Amino acid sequence: MKQKQSFAFDNVGYEGGLDSMCPSQTTTGTISISGMTCQSCVKSIEGRISSLKGIASVKVSLEQGSATVSYVPSVLSLPQVCRHIEDMGFEASVTEGKAASWPSRSSSAPEAVVKLRVEGMTCQSCVSSIEGRLGKLQGVVRVRVSLGTQEAVITYQPYLIQPQDLRDHVNDMGFEAVIKNRVAPISLGPIDIGRLQRTGPKMPSVADNQNLNNSESLGSQGSHAVTLQLRVDGMHCKSCVQNIEENVGRLPGVQSIQVSLEDRIAHVQLDPSRVTPGDLQRAIEALPPGNFKVSLPDGAAGSGTDDRPSPRPAPAPAPGARVQGVCSTTVLAIAGMTCASCVQSIEGLLSRREGVWRVSVSLAEGTGVVLYDPSVITPEELRAAVEETGFEASVISENWYSNHAGNLGAGNSAAPSTAGVPVSEQGTAPRAGGLPTNHSPSCSSKSLQDSAAVAPQKCFLQITGMTCASCVSTIERNLQKEAGILSVLVALMAGKAEVKYNPEVIQPLEIAQLIQDLGFEATVMEDYTGSDGDLELIITGMTCASCVHNIESKLTRTNGITYASVALATSKAHVKFDPEIIGPRDIVKIIEEIGFRASPAQRNPNAHHLDHKVEIKQWKKSFLCSLVFGIPVMGLMIYMLVPSSEPHETMVLDHNIVPGLSFLNLIFFILCTFVQLLGGWYFYVQAYRSLRHRAANMDVLIVLATSIAYTYSVVILVVAVAEKAERSPVTFFDTPPMLFVFIALGRWLEHVAKSKTSEALAKLMSLQATEATVVTLGEDNLIIREEQVPMELVQRGDVIKVVPGGKFPVDGKVLEGNTMADESLITGEAMPVTKKPGSTVIAGSINAHGSVLINATHVGNDTTLAQIVKLVEEAQMSKAPIQQLADRFSGYFVPFIIIISTLTLVVWIIIGFIDFGVVQKYFPTPNKHVSQTEVIIRFAFQTSITVLCIACPCSLGLATPTAVMVGTGVAAQNGILIKGGKPLEMAHKIKTVMFDKTGTITHGVPKVMRVLLLVDMATLPLRKVLAVVGTAEASSEHPLGVAVTKYCKEELGTDTLGYCTDFQAVPGCGIGCKVSSVEGILAHGGHQRGKQAALKNGGGGAPEETDATPQTFSVLIGNREWMRRNGLTISNGISDTMTDHEMKGQTAILVAIDGVLCGMIAIADSVKQEAALAVHTLKSMGVDVVLITGDNRKTARAIATQVGINKVFAEVLPSHKVAKVQELQNEGKKVAMVGDGVNDSPALARADVGIAIGTGTDVAIEAADVVLIRNDLLDVVASIHLSKRTVWRIRLNLVLALIYNLIGIPIAAGVFMPIGIVLQPWMGSAAMAASSVSVVLSSLQLKCYKKPDLQRYEAQAQGRMKPLTASQVSVHIGMDDRRWDSPRATAWDQVSYISQVSLSSLKSDRLSRHSAGADDSGDKWSLLLSDRDEEQCI
To answer: How far apart are the C-alpha atoms of 1391 and 1407, rounded to whole Å?
Structure first.
């Protein structure tokens, strides 16, 4: 008997088990259950119900209070199941309208299921509105929305509506929806085409054995094409046309098909030897939704398509086709799967096994359902196969089915018999190729084997242009929607993305293009291998080489470990590993399993190349040595210079011990030798290095001067002793000690100041948590176990619990819980940011008041905090050393002096040989035995050495250090801490000053700017409102609450407030509570004070309410959403007023007392009073001023207009700040950066002069060169002013030193000899002493410096300071140099801006569905100062 052929279609939407693949008559229904309290209730219900006869499967959900039951209606009904549940003590009822929570296989129209992730739902009302809206759409069968999981599960009819349409509908309601499981279009799978081939009555048998994909090419040679016209009824829209054209066009033998919706005709060009009109008719009629009717043209009916019973049996199956009378399903429990890649590898391996027809593995449930032929393979073999891949598996259940039940298609489950009567299961003949179709939700119609066989690959991309967490989530969310992309991980600070992809579907360059389409720049990092894990462990318990070998061999055998080396002597192990496969904790566990103890080696944050410890030690030693031996030298020098009244006594120390050597010279020699060797050693090292680089700096000059003075003195002493001279010669032994003492002191102090910068890194490191609480989750995300793990052992993918007040130990994503986090570390903004499931968190930021579970995405050196540390390190390393004035001067002076002295030597030798008389006259030689030549050479040498010695290196060496010492001292007295001479010398060259916003230009703390009463003063006086609001907010930890309480206390003139009960705070919305006992405050406040406050707030003359009856007020304070949730309506007028404030970047909050909306409070971060004046003064000095902030562009623009800054960079990351500083430096400008936060520290370290605000973070203060102790921005101007003065003084000192040189050198060189002016030996010493003293006195004059006061600055700025208009300010986003000018905001800008900036909309309305801008940065709350004239008015 021949049967009418139906076709099965791939419908990948089903998520049900595979039991339904071999159809039994089961139906699925939902039962509502109340009274369950824990997982034990769930297990007992599931156990009892699953044991009933006729139950195929049961799944109970504690959260949703429901059970989904798959049962056989002929054996059991849902009400009977309910009675069984009620017998157990619970209440149960059949859910109306949801009797088939998953599509039952008996329905004639196919259904599919899609899951959407919906963000932005805040309450049950959102859930109802989404369910109501989607439920009305044509083609939607059922909708279930969960607020807890933020998901919507929708059962729909794919021929009427598509998942994209559902997503768009949700988005149009103002939520953010993303399709979670990708649903492929309904299409014929290869199996269906195969079945069609094998059952076509006129199909040539040769096609049966061929590969399906090549089947079209077979039999086509020599065949001719025929055009056929079919009438098709039942089409409604273009979607039906597409459905028919796509599916029928794929059939073998069909060459082309064109369907007309208007004429209801299909024109088909086919090869009649391979496909008949009857086959086409059956194919089209079997297409979902199953209501197409096809009429064949006359004459075509005879081609084997009639429905009469035919005596011919169904054709025999093709050899090798997988046809089996009995199929079986087994369910395996699989443990150890961590990601989609595990799922793919298991599916791939099993599907390649002979006898396995279909595999579906669920990562979430940890199960695998396999449809197989029990005559070929057994469940035990399947379990063993899974275990071979490295997972643990066990067989849970087996179901046997007879495969006699007609077609498995989505069309009809009971195939109609010829007579139109449903054929029973036993009566249906087995059909060739009746294989189950592929129902995996993630696979397209490609065969499962193909996709699973390809191993996923990983690529890394460098991304620029990201400015905040919102950009990260935009990239991650959009990439995850793309086919072929398995996982995406984006690091904001590092600007890198790690993408796992299927190389058959997509390639890295295409991924980069996708990111570029989102508006970012992306490039593939070709040879970047990703950050391999690197672990150093201390291992205890090792005794011999055998232990070492044991550990090493065990580690190297472990999958994922690339390198392991163990040292017995130090008890240390160094391990490199792939963090995707194995983590540090696993490695420690492996070592401990062998019987040793292992712990991570502690890294010392202070052990750092920039700590200057060695230099400090060396200069200190140099200074102390010079000082100990130098003080006596200086004392003797002064003693020599003081003239004595009795000439004979002066020369006590001049008495010779031996002829030619006096006491004085002996003492000088001994002391100076020690100074030269000990104190001067480090100068020699530095000078040698400098000369090696062919540069002559200050060190070279000092070494030259001291060495020559010392050597010359020693030589002339030796000569005098050898010649037994009557008088000991005049020596220059006093030069080295004096020079070394002053210069070593200067160097030592400078390095001490410099060393502070490296403490910035230690401080940064200390921001990190030391331990993390790693939790193990069981079913339904219940915590099974918690353990404290050192930071070094936290690995990627760990679930970490963070308690209120704790630090986030790593970067990650929130899995569960809501909280606020203080992220000033990155953004510099003091306002906490709302964190909900899916939000990213940053290592080092502080969790405010909710306990959350986070999934670690970046650990170790990949965290944001580690990136900032790296930035500071790089900035300090790459900062170009400032060449000090004295060094530059020495560069010219040293060669000049050497040339002059060489010239003197040569000239005097020539003169001596020409006219010996001149030499004899001025250089009488007592010893007559000395030859004439020797006398000339000695004279020439003495003169040239005198030139070198008198070249006053002493005063040159002192010119800079003395001025710097005095300058830094004066600065400190004026509240400016300058670290060393280099910033002091550099500040006067500054051409650009960059200001951070929060905490630098503004105070960084919120402040109430305006209170607006919305009710009659007579019914609710302002003082009462303030007392109630202040009391309510006193229990809040939120900065806005603290600001409101502070303001209320100030206005009421009291420190005590009322009593607050039932306090409830909802993150991102507001607070609610009951307030009582405020009457005492109102009575105590004093009439006069009250009157002033009322007048100030615009409510003059209102009566005071001081009734003593105790009242309890029900108070709500929060944003629009909070008021709406509590049933209060907000009029357009109030909403507009709030919007006005929000457009200025202020935060507007509403107050309701006893259910009546009675006030609005505007809060903002106010600009410092002196900010505008400081900016104006800097501009008038010719300095460019730039504002650079992590805050959004509107707030930044508003602040800039107030303080008069024309150029603004908004929404920048710490790395952008550094890059911007570098960019300006590359243009040849000297840049100063003024900041206060951790996020400013890299830029402070990189700038030519980093200026930190004294009230800022420790890290910023340590990284900066200058610290403003008084938190006054005018000190920025003062520091530049003082720098100019100091540099002027240094130059004057150098000129003074030069004057002595200009006079002394010609005399020493003997230029004035003909006119009788000869340099006597004492003149050299005197000139040297005088020049040194004059330089020191000149420097001390800096002590008289007076810092310009406020009045002077104001007088200079009189009448010239005007606030800018919005259009005069150019705003740039991140590193982008394009202007974002929108002074006149469009309505769309306003909408998106409000939801981005303000507290209220952030928490509420989700007014717009705009792109990246408002995604996560909707979490940013920004505060701003209002216009002065609007303050405090009503």
So the answer is: 6
Q: The tokens 């049900």 sit on which residue?
A: 16
- Residue 1149 neighbours by CB under 8 Å, 6+ apart: 1040, 1070, 1117, 1118, 1119, 1160, 1161, 1163, 1399, 1400
Burial 965-980 (b: 16+ CB within 10 A, else e): bbbbebbeebbbbbbb
Smallest CA-to-CA distance from 941 within 933, 953, 930 is with: 933
Q: Are 92 and 82 in contact (CB under 8 A)?
A: yes
207-216 pLDDT, tens digit each? 344 343 443 4
Q: Whole-angstrom Cα distance, residue 1072 to residue 1049? A: 20
Q: Which residue(s) pair with 1266 in the sheet?
A: 978, 1251
Where does 284-325 show beta strands of DSSP type E?
293-295
pLDDT in tens, 1370-1381: 888 876 665 555
Cα 1072 to Cα 1125: distance, rounded to the nearest angstrom: 12
Helix (H, G, I), strand (E, B) or coil at 1200: helix
Residue found under tokens 């598509």: 162
Model pTM score: 0.55
pLDDT band at residue 877 under the 50/70/90 scheme:
low
pLDDT in tens, 903-935: 988 988 888 888 777 777 766 665 566 677 777
On whether the CB atoms of residues 810 and 1219 are closer than 8 A, the answer is no
pLDDT tens per residue across span 802-854: 988 888 889 899 988 888 888 876 667 767 888 888 888 888 888 887 789 99
Predicted pLDDT at 854 = 92
Q: What does the pLDDT look like over 932-958, one tens digit per residue?
A: 777 787 778 778 777 776 765 667 777
pLDDT of 900 over the 80 cut:
yes
pLDDT of res. 74: 81
What's the pLDDT tens digit per position in 1087-1126? 444 444 444 444 433 334 444 557 888 999 998 888 988 8
Confidence (pLDDT) at 668 = 86
Phi-psi group of 1248: left, alpha or beta (phi > 0 → left; psi -120 to 50 → alpha; rest → beta): alpha
Of 996, 1240, 1416, 1419, which residue is the catalytic one?
996
State how far the Cα of 1257 lies from the Cα of 1260, in Å rounded to an integer. Answer: 5
Q: Residue 1032 and residue 1016: Cα distance in Å, rounded?
A: 21
Mean per-residue pLDDT over the chain, rounded: 75
Q: What is the spatial distance between Cα 91 and Cα 78, in angstroms, rounded to a whole number?
A: 14
Q: Which two tokens stand for residue 564?
A: 């392991």
Q: 876, 766, 796, 339: which is closest to 531 by C-alpha?
A: 796
| Amino acid at the residue 772 | A
Going from the C-alpha of 787 to that of each of 272, 799, 801, 1204, the distances in angstroms are: 72, 11, 10, 54
The Cα 183–Cα 163 span in angstroms is 8
H helix count then E strand count, the chain = 43, 49
Residues in the chain: 1434
Identify the bridge partners of residue 39 per DSSP, sorted by sequence position: none
| Measured distance between the N- and C-terminal CA atoms of the chain, rounded to whole angstroms | 91
Residue listed under structure tokens 């200086």: 634
Q: Are strands 799-802 and 771-777 parallel, antiparallel or unpaired?
A: antiparallel
CA distance 1095 to 1102: 9
Is the previous residue joined to 289 through a cis bond, with omega within 30 degrees of 0? yes
Q: Which residues does residue 332 pair with via DSSP β-bridges, in sequence order?
A: 368, 395
3-state secondary structure 1323-1335: HHHHHHHHHHHHH
- As a whole number, mean pLDDT of residues 691-698 equals 76
Q: How many CA atoms lie within 13 A of 638 on its CB side?
A: 8
Q: For residue 847, give the amino acid letter.
A: N
Q: What are 666's two structure tokens? A: 């002996």
Q: Is 996 considered catalytic here?
A: yes
3-state secondary structure of 694: coil
- Lookup result for tokens 């010719």: 1182
Strands 326-335 and 1207-1210: unpaired
